[in-house]
Amino acid sequence: MKKIVMKFGGTSVATGENIRRVAKIVADSTKKDQRVVVVVSALAGVTNQLVEEAEQAKKQDEKQIQEFTGKLVEKHVATAVEAIKNKTVQKETEQAIKKAVSELEKVLTGICYVGEITPKSRDYVLSFGERLSAPIVCGALRDIKLQAQCFTGKDAGIVTDENFGAASPLMNVTTHQVKGRLEPLLEKNVVPVVTGYIAATQDGVVTTLGRGGSDYTATILSVALSADEVWIWTDVDGIMTTDPKIVQSAKMLPQLSYGEAVEMAIFGAKAMHPSALEPVIEAQIPVRIRNVFNPENPGTLIANGEETKSTEVVKAVAMIRDVAMINIKGAAMVGAPGSYSKVFDVLGKNNINVMMVSTAVSEANISLIIRRSLLGRTLSTLEIALLGRGLVSEITSEDDVCVIAAMGANMKGTLGVASRIFAAMAQKGINIRMIAQGSSELNVSFVVKEKDGEAAVRAIHEEFKLDRI
Ligand code: ASP
Ligand code: MG
Questions:
Q1: pLDDT of 62 higher than 90
Q2: For residues 338 and 347, what is the distance between their CA atoms, to the nearest angstrom?
Q3: Phi, psi (5° rounding) for residue 216?
Q4: For ligand 2, a single-atom ion, which residues have Cβ within 5 Å?
Q5: Are 216 and 234 a contacting pair, CB within 8 Å?
């Protein structure tokens, strides 16, 4: 009997109709004698609303909290009524929703009085999206006569460190607890429905695994339960060669290695939470990306040695927007040990994440890519710390750039990949501002002006004939 952990994303549970579709997918699987664990995200958009509301509450406007929680109840109850036919189950779900929201209201009121939100209380607020969606999905399963039981990540036994906002699982305790709590249910053909994204510290304080963390919940559970596969259900057929909004002939990639998938998750193919693959790589559990709106499609399979056999070395190309480039110049950095570490130390201490770095052997120049929203703060931080101290003479920036990343496992050891990529750019008259190749050799990334980004993606897609994969 196969054991499968299925994660359903925000769009998959966005409406009552979609939730009924989810329930049918689970029912079809159990009919095939598969044992299923369900992991759910918050209804589409709800986590973002909670993020905003937490900020609002800080501004100490108490009236506005009731308005927000009122709408939240309304939205979830309406979804439940649409998803669940049986009146008793409907009523029970409605009560669960109201109970959770009244707890949320207390938390928000607390924040409002104190006028402050900590990483801990923020995670607590953000946990409510999944705490509200899971009971509806559970109700919809019971509505079609499946046995189901609802769990928070904490109740399911997922324990994390105390890194609120982006907590990591402590796998030993987690495995022990999850096995003990969920395994007996699976044996009795009960479907556990677990809230994605949220867990708890060893002391039971609620944590979140980082935005998009429901994927992570699914892979953590799959390892704890030694599942056969993880299925990430989403609203697209699988991982694509590029964004179909940029290249209409973009194709679905039937198979990817873990290494390729990690690379793509990091480069914002948005298919997965960047850490979500860590647990399954070690345990060698295959992951499938599948489409709830097209369940006939097998989707993209991510597993070892399962690279799509492509004669081409580049398999996918992505454009990363909303970034900015910073150039740090200083002849004094040449041959001065520790000069780079000063730059990165300042950035690290100020919590500024560097996405890409390039330096030349002349050492007189470091180029960095960061999120565009951080540009102002990064520049002032660097200027205060570095200018006028003899090391750095000039700091400049460009905020109208984007990163283009070309990926594929076959790049490793293949000659001429970079020359083909850059020749394609030259042909289209696109100027390259910065280049970096990871030593993993799974990707080549470079920076161009944002206005040239889409043309750059199209040129690479064409050069490596990605529409024929
Ligand atoms: N609801 C959370 C988020 O929006 C987690 C997830 O959807 O995976 O980030
Ligand atoms: Mg999501």
A1: no
A2: 15
A3: -65, -45
A4: 10, 41
A5: no
